[in-house]
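Narrative progress, year one. The postdoctoral researcher (J.K.) led the effort to move from monomer predictions toward full complexes, under supervision of the PI. The following entry was the first complex the group processed end to end, covering 413 residues in total.
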Amino acid sequence: MKAWLKVFKDGLSIENPLTVLMIGLCATLAVSTQVQGSVFMGIAVIFVLVMSNALIAMFRKLIPNEVRIPIFIVIIASFVTVVDLFMKAFFPPIYAVLGIWIPLIVVNCIILGRAEGFAYHNTVWLSVADGLGMGLGYTTVLVGLAFIRELFGSGKVDLFGATILRMPGAYEPPTILMLFPGAFIIFGFIIAFTRWLNQRSATRKGA
Amino acid sequence: MSVLSHYMLLFIGAALINNILLTRFIALCSFFGISNNMNTAIGMSAAVVFVMMMASTTTWLVWKFLLVPLNVGEFLYIPAFILVIAALVQFVEMYLRKYSPVLYRAMGIYLPLITTNCAVLAAATEVAKPGFFKMAMTYNYTLGEALIYTLGVAVGYGFALIAFTALRERLDIAPVPKVLKGTPISFISAGLLSLAYVGFAGWFGL
């Protein structure tokens, strides 16, 4: 398998930032009340991750080891500012939902973690592949969690102004799923499920 | 309302009702990362109280006397605040190592981690930049209010972290189904703990 394809796939599955590495949890649990907001959050994270990974990989030979963290943070903060102003200008309703989580992408551990752990030691193309894989892995789990919460917590799923899925009429949505305890509990079960899947595929490969 | 009760409400609102960990999901990485040992949890909480107070004071001053007069606040606040916090943490670490080895031993290892602790950036931006926490709320904190609010946030963080650590230590010896062992059961019990915080909502009309 080509190296960049493997890097891309690892981000989606066995090195998934949310369910396996358990980083970047804060924003995930907070914005996952709506599918639509989660999609935009995912796009914002993919953009910042890919751009900062690419830029850091490009300059990795020039960045001195002692001051690398402040340099990474400045690079990341610039791209986050781009996203912040862009969303505020063109998607104000979505910006109002996501609120403080867009500026807080700066301190999202996924991005600094990948800059430090991957982009600083790899070529530009590999880093872009890693950013895309990690970003998509993040977005998949985030949108999945939001889908479960919105479907069972409010009885229907809205996306771009249209209702795409609705529960039967007699269904009474438990509001607890939309509140914060619901996020913790559902995410706990999602981790348990992915762990069970990984264990099962590992034992099958062994047999 | 008297001044004292105004400050009390600000403190309680920040510490319990809008608890930064369990009702606003900020700084969850550290919440799950370090809550498996009581000593670590206490050390981290102390370091967070210390750094957060200093960070909020600095960002409040930077916003008021640097970003607003230069009219660059709206698009430079993210890099400015995160750099201020990163530099501050670095200085605190160097100062403690040189002048207070006892304190450094107690919380030195947590200091670098705090730079990427979203709670510090969130609280520091909230008190400095009006209208950050809720879009509609463009409330200017005075420096005194900013400090009380930040203290509330930090104490609420420490309290929730220590409570959860105590809970997790018990979970280690409890009979839990095999697939749920470890992280999944921690998340589910964090959910139950945050259920308790739902009960605080609406107290004192906050």
